[in-house]
Amino acid sequence: MSNVTLIDRIRQHEVERGEAPALRDPQQMMSWAELGLFSNRVANALMALGLEKGDRVAFLGHGSVRYAATLVGTLKAGLSLVPLPTLLSDEAIGTMLADSGAKVLFVSESQAAKPRQRPAHTIGLDFADDETKDFDAFLDGASDTAPDVTITLEDEFNVIYSSGTTGTPKGIVLQHKLRADAARRFRSLGFPDGGRTLATTAIYSNWTIGAFVYTLWAGGCLYLTGKFSAAGLVELCEDYRPDDIFMVPIQAQRLLDYVAQTDCPAPPPALKWCAGSYFPAAQKAALMDYWDGGLMEIYGLTEGAPFTMLNASAHPDKIGTVGRSDPVEDLKIIGENDQLLPNGERGEVLGRVRVIMRGYHNNPAASEAMIWRDEDGTAWMRSGDIGWLDDDGFLTITGRKKDMIVSGGFNIYSADLEEILLRHPDIAEAAAFAVPSAEWGESPAAAIVPREGAELNPDAIRQWANDQLGPLQRIRAVALTPSLPRGSLDKVLYRSLRDQFAHLGDSESKTA
Predict the structure, then answer these.
(1) How far, CA to CA in Å, does 500 sit from each of 67, 243, 492, 505?
(2) Which of 158, 239, 385, 387 has most Cβ atoms within 10 angstroms of its Cβ?
(3) Model confidence over 203-222: pLDDT tens digits?
(4) What's the Cα-to-Cα distance from 406 to each of 435, 436, 474, 492, rounded to whole Å?
(5) Phi, psi (deg, nearest 5) at residue 171
(6) What pLDDT score does 297 carry?
């Protein structure tokens, strides 16, 4: 393995690429030369506050050139990034800040009220007040020469928190070596030298941090779009002409809905990277039919394993899967008693890769609980996802282990029910979840979002779906709702649905 880090690559591009663009948002562009000087000042200013190599710096705000360039400066100082999700509650944000031990917080004005207890130093990305230092004042007097800090592959890169929407969030500690290894892998599949990447998701997500790393590694330009809209995406692609686009499935769905309503022409060809949640096969096919340039679907955990990739254009017969690992032997499926299962049988997905997380911060018990060891003592990481492998090594995911519906002792998988519901031409989104049942313990229910202008009858939808489902899968109740609760990367929050619609266990159909 090469000893080159992301910071090594960035320093090289600052010299060689000069006036070429490195970062963009709707209001600003920063060249590689400007990024070099700006990030050097950030690094030196942080060190002047007394921060030492290995300390952590938290970020709470929306994607912008300044945010991304400050990430680079923080890494140059040998510090670790703690990007915090803006969608979470004040309590969850406070828990993450306290657990991380971050000594500095960079915050946007829109998020300033969330942290109830702040680190010793709080700096406004776009504002200042009595408790928040102005960004320009923070940089005042800082040198723009490169800081004398050596970054190694073993150094900590970031702490990414797993959730916090329910339960206690876990801080996933990743090192520079994981980021460097992934950057080399992705560069072989896309990300041309000096290429353009469009990131449509929030910069605090691990998915967008990936886009940030892979693009800067290749000396390209990363465009942070801000709030997503389908019309805005089409317009931006015409202007920016990205080589690579990072998306999530719900955005692909909204784009396709927009196209159906407006009949707008496809943007210029671009390689679409999609991850984060269930991506129906029909939507993948529709996206490829509409937009040239290829589609790569990624399945994996922030922790590092398991990891699969689907080149949907190259494997149209496998479009219902999330791809396979490389090598294929890096995936296994185990049953309820942790026994290995053969191809075709559903169970928990395990994976191994060369580089994984260092562990969960302050939580060694959770780190150990992630591990399953085979008869040779080799460690595999538990995904918490339920899926099965075909004979070619392609993986199909059917749901989360903790979100599985267990009715009368039988396992019912949300993805199976959702696949049927999403075949209905008037259903835009669907999620299947468990509701209480006196007779069966749990029964399946579903929340659906109608397409714009559609008028749906919940009972009729339930009957239509049940006509296509097996006797054990039949949906007890259907709820119409204007939207599904979503968290990071627009993942559906099934626990929230269980709580919100628990009353459907004792009734037939409701409108939320």
Answers:
(1) 35, 41, 13, 11
(2) 158
(3) 999 999 999 999 999 999 99
(4) 10, 10, 13, 19
(5) -85, 115
(6) 97
485, 277 Cβ separation under 8 angstroms: no
- Would strands 405-407 and 331-334 be described as parallel, antiparallel, or unpaired? unpaired
pTM, whole model, 2 decimals? Answer: 0.86
**In this model, does residue 3 exceed pLDDT 80?**
yes
Question: 4, 214 in Cβ contact below 8 A?
Answer: no
DSSP-derived secondary structure letter, 254: H
| Residues 370, 368: Cα–Cα separation, whole Å | 5
Rounded Cα gap, residues 136 and 163, in angstroms = 32
- Which regions of 176-306 does DSSP assign to beta strands (E)? 196-199, 221-224, 244-247, 271-274, 295-300
* Euclidean distance between CA atoms 184 and 47, whole angstroms: 30
Question: Which tokens in the block code for residue 476?
Answer: 């007890």
> Which residues touch 365 (CB under 8 Å, ≥6 apart)?
none
H-type helices in 21-140, by residue range? 32-48, 65-76, 90-100, 135-139
- The rounded distance, in Å, linking the Cα atoms of 360 and 465 is 41
Q: How far is CA 436 from CA 182, 362, 432, 454, 479, in A?
A: 43, 35, 13, 30, 15
- Please indicate whether residue 378 or residue 107 has the higher confidence score (pLDDT): 107
SS3 state of residue 203: coil
Beta-bridge mates of residue 22: none
Q: What is the β-pairing status of strands 395-400 and 379-389? A: antiparallel
Which residues neighbour 72 within 8 Å (Cβ) at sequence distance 6 or greater? 10, 35, 39, 42, 216
Checking DSSP bridges between strand 427-437 and strand 441-450, what pairing results, if any? antiparallel
Distance, CA of 237 to chain centre: 21
State pLDDT tens for residues 149-184. Answer: 999 999 999 999 976 444 567 899 999 999 999 999
Q: Is the pLDDT of residue 512 over 70?
A: no
Do residues 32 and 22 lie in contact, with contact meaning Cβ atoms separated by under 8 Å?
Answer: yes
The pLDDT of residue 268 is above 70: yes
The pairing of beta strand 196-199 with beta strand 379-389: unpaired
For residue 450, say if its preceding peptide bond is cis, omega within 30 degrees of 0: no
SS (H, E, C) 221-250: EEEECCCCCHHHHHHHHHHHCCCEEEECHH
Distance CA(98)–CA(117), nearest Å, equals 8
Confidence at 276, pLDDT banded by 50, 70, 90:
confident
Q: How confident is the model at residue 357 (pLDDT cuts 50, 70, 90)?
A: confident
Structure tokens at 496: 């929230």
